[in-house]
Design a protein that fits this description.
About 35% of the residues lie in helices and about 20% in strands. It is built from four helices and six strands. The strands form two sheets. The chain has a four-stranded antiparallel beta sheet with strand order 2-5-4-3, with helices on one face. The chain is globular.
Length: about 140
Amino acid sequence: MKKYDFVFSLGEACSCSTALRDNGLQIQSFPFDWVALGDFQGRAETVASGFADFFNAEDLEYAGSNGCRSECYKNRRNGYFFTHDFPYKGDFKTDYPAARAKFDRRIDRLMRRLKDSRNVLVCYLEKPYVHETTAMPATVGGG
């Protein structure tokens, strides 16, 4: 059986990271763990670019609230959907720096682990739950 130095989730949503955690394969958070939408190629390109334009304030547009009691934002540039990073009824300008710092830590952690690992397994679930892909546009952002 192949052994891996490092296993991480590339998304497409929470369930991939949750499955890794449930099976003892992931104990830390990484940038794509709780980010929805975007395709595999785009996510791989984001990692290869060192996460250029991943979470710039000027690229984020408000997309409504979700059932997890947080505010959702969509990145206009890359299509990523951030559903767990801003408090419900919070203020974007006040809350963005803490969210940015969290992603910077996760990005640094991922890039360091990739650099230090020889055998890496990247996990990706394109459609984690059928209801997520059909219900998200109607539930979040009203459109």
